[in-house]
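Handoff note, outgoing to incoming analyst
You'll be picking up this chain. Sequence as last confirmed:
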Amino acid sequence: MSLASVSLPLLAVGDLFPRGVLPYLLGGVLVGLGTVVIYLGTGIHAGASTFLESTLTYVSGLSRFQRYTASRGWRIVFTLGIVSGAAVYALATQSTIWTTDVQWWRLLVGGILVGVGTRVGKGCTSGHGICGVGSLSETSLANVATFVVVAVGTAQLVQAAGVSP
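Most recent structure output, in case you need it:
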């Protein structure tokens, strides 16, 4: 085996983890630990879309949102923890909290499309990808495979179209 054949996979891994493996490993462990704590404490599979949807109980009278009123307190704390944790990390490691060149309206449209997708897919990447795959749910395995294929395909189309932030 030549040095070139060994270094090629290492370069590919370096491209996948530009900040090193540790931040991603630590994040994965913390997400997994949080999922376990939520499941052991409540018996509920953690999924960010459901937690975010529970915030709508404050502003909507629709019955679909009112099913979360009994448990919305801790769900709101969880959701705020996601947002504030990301903000604290960004402020601690960067000079600004805004770290993208993507235009605000594209982020808004993307967020709306993701929201629609979570309802169509009956859950989000965190619910299906962490809890569903971890429990070997066939539905979640199919959904995660679909998420990955669509994400890669979309990224390829956007790049081929020459769309920039």
